[in-house]
Amino acid sequence: MANSNLQRWYDFMKEENISELQDMLHEEAVFTSPVVYTPQRGRALVTGYLSAASKVLGGESFKYVREFDCGDRAVLEFVCEIDGIEINGIDMIEWDEDGKITDFKVMVRPLKAIQKLHQMMAAMLQAQAKN
After folding, report:
1. Label partner for 63 (CA 20 to 30 A): which of 11, 13, 81, 95?
2. Three-state SS for 39?
3. What is the CATH number of domain 4-123?
């Protein structure tokens, strides 16, 4: 049974409610991407990256297959398939004492998957910037 912070994350991945995501994030949250060199800092940037990632990865094939729940930290292993490419990755999440996400890191394998995600994330982020 997932803790309440983790359950909120799972709920977001099912519903993709952006206002709920913003509410889950600490004002100074940090997002570390497998395809962007520097960590992205601040609620607005992290919201953009996580909402784009949920759209790119969160299709019908996306599922979490393993969970390491350590209370204020969790590691979630996921799998999905995009354009015939099997993607395997992990989300590493940390929460503060108020249940806000302070740090979110994504790691992905294999290289072919990272290249595909880079291409798709760039397109999604460009589309978000236009809106």
Report:
1. 95
2. coil
3. 3.10.450.50
